[in-house]
Amino acid sequence: MSDAAPAADQTARLQTRRLRLRRDGLGSRIGVALLLSLLCAAALIALAGHNPLEAFLAIVQGAVGSQHQIGASLNRTTPYLLSGAGVALCFRAGIINIGAEGQIAVGGAGAAAAALALAGAPSLVAIPLALVGGALAGSLWAGLAAAIHLGRGVHEVLVTLLLNFIALLLVQQLLAGPLGQPGAGFLQSSLMPRSAWLSHLAGFDVHAGILIAVVAAAALSFVLWWTRFGFALRVSGSSRLAAAYAGFSLARLTWGAMLTAGALAGLAGGIEVLGMHRRLIEGFSLGFGFKAVTVALLGAMEPLAVVPAALFVGLLESGSLAMQRQIGVPTALITVIEGLTMLFVLAATAARR
Amino acid sequence: MSMMLDMRGIVRRFGHVVANDAIDLDVAAGEIVGLLGENGSGKSTLMKVLFGMLPPDAGTISFRGQPLTGHTPAAAMAAGIAMIHQHFMLVDAMTVAENVMLGWRDAGRLLRRKEMADRIRDVSRRFGLDLDPDARVAALSLGRRQRVEILKAILRNAELLVLDEPTSNLASAEVAELLTVLRRLRQEGKGIIFISHKLPEVLEICDKVVVLRAGRVTGRTSVAGASQGMLAEMMIGRDVTAPRPPMVASSPGPARLSVKDFLAPGLARLSFEIRRGEIFGVAGVDGNGQIELVEALAGLRPAGSGAITIDGHDVTRASVAARLTRGLAYMPADRGTTALVKTMSVAENLMLRDSGRPPYGHGLLLTRGPANAKARALMADYDIRARDPSFIAGRLSGGNQQKIVVARELDRRPAVLIAHQAAWGLDPGATHFVLDRMLALREAGAAILYVSSELEEVLAISDRIAVMARGGFAGIVPRGEVDPRQLGIWMAGRAA
Amino acid sequence: APPAAAEEKAAMLLPGSINDQSWNALGYSILLALKPHGFTTAYTENVADSDEAEALRGYATQGYNIVMGHSGRFVSAMEQVAPDFPKTQFIAVSGNEGAAPNVMSIDWNNAQFGCQLGVLAARMSKSKMVAGVYGLEGVPNITAQAGGFRICATKAGAKVSILYVKDMEDSAAAKEAALSLIAQGADVITGKLNAAEAGLVQAAKEKHVYVTGRGVDQTKMAPDAVLTNIVEDWPAMFGKTADEVKAGKLFGNFVQYGYDTAPVTGGSLVYDADKPFNPVVPAAVVKELDDMAGQFKAGTLKVEPTREDARGGS
Amino acid sequence: MIEFLAAAIRIATPLALAALGGILSERAGVFAVGLEGMMLAGAFAAAIGAWATSEPIAGLLLAPLGGGVIGLAVAIVAVRFRADNMVTGLAVNVLALGLTSYLMRILASGGRPVSMRLPLLTALPIPALSDLPVIGPLLFAQPPLTYLTALGCLLMTLFLNRTQAGLTLRATGENPEAVFASGGHPARVRMLAVIACGAVAGLGGAVLTLQQVGTFTDGMTGGRGYMALAALIVGRWTPWGAAAACLVFGAAEAFELRLQSFGVPVSSYVVQMAPYLIALTVLAGLGQSSKLPAAIGQPLPSTR
Ligand SMILES: Nc1ncnc2c1ncn2[C@@H]1O[C@H](COP(=O)(O)OP(=O)(O)OP(=O)(O)O)[C@@H](O)[C@H]1O
Ligand SMILES: Nc1ncnc2c1ncn2[C@@H]1O[C@H](COP(=O)(O)OP(=O)(O)OP(=O)(O)O)[C@@H](O)[C@H]1O
Ligand SMILES: [Mg+2]
Ligand SMILES: [Mg+2]
Predict the structure, then answer these.
(1) One Gene Ontology cellular component annotation (chain B) (predicted)?
(2) Is the distance from CB of A317 to CB of A334 less than 8 angstroms?
(3) Among A9, A119, B272, C223, whose CB has the most other CB atoms within 10 angstroms?
(4) Ligand 1 atom closest to Cα of B42?
């Protein structure tokens, strides 16, 4: 067979996919949803007595107004991208994993423990091992959820949720105990050894995490569309009966998806610790997990599309800080925008299902 | 004579399909009208329009002198129409009494449970329905469930009763009981619309018959003096009866599929063998263990005890994947959610069970180029009419969807094929095609288990025929020795 | 950016909402207190932990001379950001470490005030059982106050029980914790919580026991139940530093105010505008507490609580 | 001991009210993940009502409205637009958190923070009964919303089992087609059920503001909605069962506080895990939730 045939097939496939996107108008419907939530936000800003345009301008400037701001936004994007891609993978398989929050927390602790243990090791050893430590810890936590879910038939939403609460307490316990910095003014670990700091990219205040995250999202997209495992996940997400009929083990798929998502969330935690705080600090993971769900949804559960989705949330949040600094619109507004966006996107994408 | 129901010029379209094309239908009090027609001829649609579940695109309905337009099921019921759907509309988790009270004004806003239970017992006794108001519907047989539906209609004083294929799920004893009840209702002056594909019972119970074809009325006749052949001709029109594929007596080879002392929930102990080049047909009323049997063989349900071997290899506890590797193919009856993933493309559905093997995949990876090429080839071979392999399977017509399943399962050159309702919902051409492929597979030496509730189909292609009743085989006969009366007795051998 | 014409600017980052009627509201008042010292002010509330560095950097970039973080948790982020802004003074409220040259922590001596509350509680208790409700076990200023409370109340002859709640903002849970302690016989309750402090006062009010609060507002909530409040005098602590920063000085140390740093003591016990204690507190007890303050000032009395002193349980 | 039970009852009350609401929603076939947001909105509305009028009754009237608004959002997105129930629930939780905090800020409008000191609903001892030994003070000297919770269990049980509306609601969660075919409106039933769920859960939130704390703070429900959700599953979707499960959770939390007082050798963080571990253990012990309403989470077929 000539090489031309598959290539032709591929372009045909891409074309139909693009056509399908256009015909279903998925992209434009998400666009309308975003627009609607911004309109609602504008109304709320006006209600608070501020000028919505001015506020949005402040958000934009705060998000991309300078090289530094861009870097900050990218850093903010990183954990959302990583954990959101993992959540998207689970959602694809029909597993509602809302445990990213706890997995990030535990992952951060794992990375911190590894980095502290590796004091003295060169960066080339310390950073990868610490990140692996974070990913492993996140996986472990997600695995625990999978085990309870599969073993005892408890709904995954409840398991992952309850484990979130436990994970946060666990990290506090670690900080009050073995990982804590003696005499520190707060629940925090000692500073990581410098060799474990995730370096900044030249010229930007952005750490290497964003690269890892983009690579991970691309890898996940590859897994989803080009591997048998991804195929099985997609089948089971569409119909569990069909997946069983196809000979895929639902339990194994659940393990696979949960462990992968856990590893990514753990990695996100590790990157936060090594790249942002340079130490494990109480509450560093609060709220990431639920936003990962927003991001996965916004990205229509497609890891590559999670990139712009995470970027959107990252920009929005880093911009919103600037908004409050400059014109005093409360940041709670951003939570409102996120909630509204989720709702509108849900309605928009479900309408034609 | 003034008609109880008067439907005039009903038109209903679904996209390009004209399901009802200017249909007129009258029913008088104390009359049973048979509604006949091939699959997809528009019977159910017409009834849904009558019952207010679908708005018509044109036409008028008048019931007992009152016009019915833009109505809802609630309004239809209030007017005195009751509908018994092909798939029962009962809540399994609730009791008979609760199902009866659901949505019924007389039950009161504050439910009068005791009074209702008494009334249920009363009517149930009067019509010989034998229903316990406190029984949970989930625990009732299909025949009983249907009686619950009839009970609902009687209790609500329905004047017009619509029964959409009420007998297709019933054993013959149950059918007889149903017909008795219907006669009784006719005596009481109710009107009845009776939809069925089974001509003998139509001739037995109906007063007149209306025949639909492709959404139009192609015949009306009074039953007196009508014959089955006449009705069949009105239904099928110029199309001659489906040609029966020629069967050559098979030369029995060694056993390929063997089932010994097999026991699983919902099944009685089963033992049988299917040999090389043999089609083993399983007939019987749906719900007698067919689904349990095929799914257990396919590896989708846990086995209780006993042994299943394929070509001498024990697969009793093997996974679905392991059975696939041993050469077991399976066409499930549930096309919608098991056999196909409707949101995925034709190509992806063709590789559903073979994604780990060339040309679809290699190791952990999918090989999309070769997979698409293969899909094109299969689409040509099996006449799957889709624009290209990336077309979404759920948007194809039912027949083309089924062809995907057939292509996928046969292309693997299976040693053993389990086909469950393989021609379900297919038009005659497509049915013919599927049966042809089965026979070709038989020639190639496979062992085939062909399970269908359509006796005709089973008789047409099986070397041996078994009848399933109450989870076991009521009897097995070779093709040459089939006695239709005996088959009927076996089929009815199921508790009411 | 062009140098702002001799404009002095101070910004405050708050970990929670300024509406919590407790810790963050206090932080907001610190900021307001800098206005008379000639600063224009700005604040950001609900700063997530992951945003701390970013928010600090944002204000520093905008040319704020003083950038404050209203929790010890900000120290870590300040240490990261400060080297890039050598002219900005970063101050962590209630941290306990500094970093030269421009990250400082300011706190008050929790142990001294905790100790005073311990004696007050022991004296006012009829059951000789007193209790404290805290959050974040192991954080130094919590350890200091809870430990100081236990050491001194025990010395004064009372049995002490300490409970930690999961969330310093969850008043319903804190109230429940207080109720459980009262049920066990405690008749004076103290604590160091944020929004949840109101739960303690509410519980004491309902069960007719005594409580200490964290601000005169809480006296208004339950004038009969509240014995006194620790009113943290952050404006004074910060005002002093702010003036020096304005004069061009930078600090990289940890300053702890207390009775020994008078006249700025970092805090005081206040019942309402003109009284330090609820009138039910006997004069003898008031005198005893005043004497303690004197001893702290003179350095003759020192309390140095350990994690063990602040442990949960009785 | 009595105190311990009293504590369990207090902690259980907001959970139980929310769980009662959740039963309405889940029995009608919509997962009640949004309980947290509904409670929070209810707590907020109650606080606003009581603060603006200085009358706790006004808060009591507004609370169902607050929760109901969130219920309406779920109803529109999950029922009308047929979006995934779980994710919709999570989304409204985020929305409620943001919206209540934001509106609090608007009230404060940049200046001095509003200091909400709300009048609390006081205990209403039932004459005679409250004088009974032991159970008198325990059961018959409660504040109004606690009585309402018990009454709610009773009414809800009657409603579900003894009324046409309750029958229809249950049937909608089991088999909406059957409801449709018997003349009902499954979509309407689900919408109403979810809105009612919001209203009842809103009262659950009001317990916190009007009966326990007397003020509103951001995110003050602190995960109680999720515990209520777990409770109604443990309680097998029955009002008394869910209430019993809430009492178990309440007892677990009361136990956790007392455990700390005994001075166990682990830190408070470990002890604080107890309620969640207990919930998880109970759920795992129950195993497969076999009696889940059959059609829960399944969108209604479109009429198109
Ligand atoms: N909801 C629908 N959407 C699109 N097409 C429909 C729909 N319902 C029915 N049709 C089409 O209308 C035609 C008539 O269908 P109908 O169900 O009335 O047939 P029927 O006579 O009841 O067939 P059967 O004997 O199989 O029950 C068919 O072509 C069918 O595919
Ligand atoms: N044949 C059917 N059997 C069962 N359910 C159906 C059938 N056809 C449609 N439905 C679904 O049942 C629901 C009917 O609910 P309902 O009648 O309350 O909604 P509606 O008709 O959209 O609106 P309204 O309440 O305003 O009349 C619809 O969601 C519809 O999709
Ligand atoms: Mg039909
Ligand atoms: Mg039919």
Answers:
(1) plasma membrane
(2) yes
(3) A9
(4) 18
Q: Could you give the residue ranges of the DSSP H alpha helices within chain D?
A: 2-27, 35-53, 56-74, 85-108, 135-139, 144-162, 164-174, 176-181, 186-206, 224-234, 239-262, 268-272, 274-286
Q: Which-ligand-closest: CA of D28?
A: 2
- Ligand 1 centroid distance, CA of B17 (Å): 9
Q: Do chains B and C touch (3 or more CB pairs under 8 A)?
A: no
Residue to substitute in B44, B54, B167 for testing ligand 1 pocket (most ligand atoms within 8 angstroms of CB) = B44
pLDDT at residue A22 tops 60: no
Ordered by start, the domain boundaries in chain B are: 3-236, 255-491
Instruction: State the DSSP code for B197.
Output: S
User: For B28-119, where are the E strands, in sequence order?
Assistant: 32-37, 58-63, 66-67, 81-84
Please give the domain boundaries of chain D with CATH numbers for all domains. Answer: 2-116+134-286 (1.10.3470)
Residue of C46, C55, C73 lying closest to A332 (CB–CB): C46
Q: What residue has token string 């106050």?
A: C145
Would you write out chain B's pLDDT as a tens digit for each of its 496 residues? 578 999 999 999 987 778 899 999 999 999 999 998 876 788 889 999 999 988 999 999 999 999 998 888 888 988 999 998 877 789 989 999 999 999 888 888 999 999 999 999 999 888 888 899 999 998 887 778 888 998 998 898 899 999 988 876 666 677 888 899 899 999 999 999 999 877 788 889 999 999 988 889 988 999 888 877 787 777 765 443 444 555 666 666 889 999 999 998 888 899 999 999 899 999 887 778 888 999 999 999 888 889 999 999 999 999 999 999 999 999 998 877 889 998 899 999 999 999 988 889 988 999 989 999 999 999 999 888 888 899 888 877 777 888 899 999 999 899 999 999 887 766 666 777 888 888 899 989 999 999 987 777 788 889 999 998 888 998 899 888 888 778 877 876 643 3
From the list B89, B101, B108, which residue is nearest D177 (CB)? B89
A51's tokens = 């000028």
Q: Which of C47, C72, C137 shows the shortest C-beta gap to A186?
A: C72
Tell me if chain B has a CB within 8 Å of the CB of A252.
Answer: no
Q: Which superfamily does CATH assign the domain made up of B255-491 to?
A: P-loop containing nucleotide triphosphate hydrolases (3.40.50.300)
Starting from the CA of residue B36, give the closest ligand.
Answer: 1
Instruction: State in Å: Cα B422 to ligand 3 middle.
Output: 19
Domain regions of chain A by residue span: 79-311
Probe target for ligand 2 pocket from D185, D191, D192, D304, with the most ligand atoms within 8 Å of CB: D185
DSSP state of B481: G
For A223-288, the DSSP string reads: HHHHBHHHHHHHHHHH-HHHHHHTT--HHHHHHHHHHHHHHHHHHHHHHIIIIIISS-BTTTTTTH
Any idea what DSSP says for residue D263?
T
Nearest CA in chain D to C134: D268
Distance separating alpha carbons of residues C148 and C142, to the nearest angstrom: 10
CA distance C202 to chain D (A): 7
Q: Is A49 touching D (CB cutoff 8 A)? A: yes
Chains within contact range of chain D (3+ C-beta pairs < 8 Å) = A, B, C
Superfamily designation of domain B3-236: P-loop containing nucleotide triphosphate hydrolases (3.40.50.300)
CB contact under 8 A, A5 and B373: yes
Measure CB to CB from residue C217 to each of D108, D115, D271 and give the nearest one: D115
Q: Answer for the pair D41, D94: CB distance below 8 angstroms, yes or no.
A: no
C-alpha to C-alpha distance for C139 and C32, rounded to whole angstroms: 27
ipTM score for this prediction: 0.81
d(CA D287, CA A151): 8
**In the numeric block, which tokens belong to residue B214?**
């492709």
Residue D80 has pLDDT above 50, yes or no: yes
